[in-house]
Write a structure and sequence with these properties.
The protein has nine helices and five strands, in the order H-E-H-E-H-H-H-E-H-E-H-H-E-H. The chain is α/β, with parallel strands linked by helices. The chain has a single domain, classed as P-loop containing nucleotide triphosphate hydrolases (Rossmann fold). Helix 5 packs parallel to helix 6. It is globular, with a radius of gyration of 15 Å. The structure holds shikimate-3-phosphate. Shikimate-3-phosphate (S3P) binds next to loops. Catalyzes the conversion of 3-deoxy-D-arabino-heptulosonate 7-phosphate (DAHP) to dehydroquinate (DHQ). It is found in: Cytoplasm. Belongs to the sugar phosphate cyclases superfamily. Dehydroquinate synthase family. Belongs to the shikimate kinase family.
């Protein structure tokens, strides 16, 4: 599989709480590839947390940084990349992923997502008065875009080994 990947990365997309970071880490380990979390890269590049970037500079500034960080990560060769939930919505990023990677949508039921993101302190998009509705609205808006990923894998509650194996057979 890693030989077939060549220089392409495996890029996990999907909503907050779908498990991109935790499953991505496992997948990378299983395949002997490096792992990188795009949100963490953005925080390092900006020298502040994502919540602070949103608060001080606003979402458009964050999105621009996200687009640049994604370009750099995708150009850096084969790895497993966990993206922030909004990264795949950007057309330029999607085109670059199509050239440099294989996209995997980690799909999850709304209830599963909500249970995972209830403790939402570090997720500025969920800081409003009714975060559960916000999450469901995002889900409805974004599902048609996530559905354009090369592969879709369901993220269930519980151990993620099965999800990782499903990803591998989907990519092969
Ligand atoms: C966002 C998701 C977050 C983070 C930012 C915006 C989104 O990443 O990039 O808060 O637009 O869905 P996770 O999906 O890793 O929580």
């Amino acid at each position: 599989l890693t030989a077939a990947l060549g220089a392409r990365s495996i890029v996990l997309v999907g909503l907050m709480g779908s498990g991109k970071t935790s499953t991505g880490r496992r997948l990378a380990h299983r395949l002997g590839l490096g792992f990188v979390d795009a949100d963490a890269e953005i925080e390092t590049a900006a020298g502040m947390s994502i919540a602070d970037i949103f608060a001080r500079h606003g979402e458009p500034y964050f999105r621009d940084g996200e687009r640049r960080v994604m370009a750099r990560l995708l150009d850096a060769g084969p790895r497993v990349i966990a993206t922030g939930g909004g990264a795949f919505l950007n057309e330029e990023t999607r085109a670059r992923i199509a050239r440099r990677g294989i996209s995997v949508w980690l799909k999850a039921d709304p209830d599963v997502l909500w249970r995972r993101v209830r403790k939402r302190s570090h997720r500025p998009l969920l800081h409003g008065p009714d975060p559960e509705t916000t999450l469901r609205t995002l889900l409805e808006q974004r599902y048609p875009v996530y559905a354009r990923a090369d592969i879709t894998v369901m993220s269930h509650e519980g151990p993620q080994e099965a999800t990782v194996e499903e990803m591998i057979s989907g990519i092969e």
